[in-house]
Amino acid sequence: MCLQVGGKRRGVLLAALVGAVVAFALGYLYWYGFRAPGEAVKPEVVGVELSWGGVNDSVTEVLARVVVYNPNPFQIEVKRVTFDLYMNGLRVGSGECGGYALAGRGNTTITLRGFLDNEKIPEWFVSHVSRGERTEIRVSGVAVIDLKLAEASYPFDKEFTFKTDLLSGLNVTEPQEVSLGPLVLFLKELETRWGSVGPEGVEVNHKLVLFNPQPLPIPLPVIEYKVYVNGVEVGEGSTRRIVVLSPGKDTVLLFTTSLNPRALIRWWVTHIRNGERTRLVVEAYSTVEVAGEKYSFEVYRLEKLIETNILGGLRP
Fold first, then answer.
1. What is the DSSP letter of 233?
2. For residue 86, what pLDDT is reported?
3. Vertex 223, ends 219 and 229: CA angle to 5°?
4. Which of 159, 162, 190, 284 could in theory staple to 138 by disulfide, Cβ–Cβ 3.0 to 4.6 A?
């Protein structure tokens, strides 16, 4: 069956066809300029830099500066850019922004704003310690370009690793005097290392060596200890048994501190607010009875300044 098209209708169809060809040509020139398609170079993400913004009890702001190079002689519109932030494979935050223009033949810096979920901090901390205090950070995203006739997506992915040594400095290798009222003991050694690490939390193991120079045994009913970070108590424990320090001998004490996962969220907020600086304090104290008198004393107190640069490994 054949259809016959009249003169006016033929003119309308011809005009529509010409319009479609012109639109295609404009889109072609918009994307390729006056070069062959094989010669056109697509925009490229040449750098990503992350930094912290504001922080509250629930979220931590993440700012991402993305540098995009447009080699073409014309401006290109970016409809939106999205990104996800991962720490040891755990998705901890995301962000999305839109409405940008890439200048022709040059770099354009786009600033994205996202948020890290503070509830993810305990799970991340467990992964950090279990991997030998190493965290792999990955920022993965996609930029959607408006080509007028179509859209094109350009993914980007950057990775880096940061390390810590949180327990260094929490050891004692030189003897220290410990006063028990009229008596003196010696703290000869303190060794601190990571213990059990799992979904329920993180433990820190301690080995304490006390020397009793007195001619009589000294009973210690209990040794209690606490761990503070920026004033936030994150762990505590006790020996939970009477320890007798034999005269003229060393006594080895083993005990464990359990870190509170929920308290780690409060610590994270203080750490970011302080410019990624944390003052770590470990205290151990006890009570002893000498000649009918009770004396409370500090077995040891250790302090350490912890500084990190978690996002600093990613630079343009």
1. E
2. 97
3. 160
4. 159
